């Protein structure tokens, strides 16, 4: 039981690190591409009336364009990556706080609490999504109609994300129970038994 509980408890911190990092990398890549394209079009529009007429002029034109595109892409990537990483970290952190509170209550219920505790992820994910959508609506000063839609969307997406985490955690608990040398009955209460009684032929 202690081994399965330890495995379950360590799912949160690893996800709190992996989630924001992955989101930041994805956001940096997306921001880099979009900001680079925008900077390239902007540079062409600003210099359309003064195109170079010599080979040396074209060389410096392309060099300046590449520099501005690269610099704008890096800034856009860092900005988008930081924003997406922070929002993801805030969601996962809030979800972990809510889920820890729910687990503490469920684990006092008795046998099978550990596996049932893993199933609270969809609830904590929905609450975290709802809270984050509310914070975003307040920060961006959304109208009531738009904010209501964002609240519903945040709750729905948060619940789906929590449900996906639940499936992963339940699989991990069953795996630990099956691989435990003392058997699944003592390692993870509530997990399906993997031992079958031998019947004489």
TrEMBL record:
Region (Disordered): 180-201
Top-level lineage group: Eukaryota
PANTHER family associated with the record: HIG1 DOMAIN-CONTAINING PROTEIN, YALI0B21208P
Protein name as catalogued: Uncharacterized protein
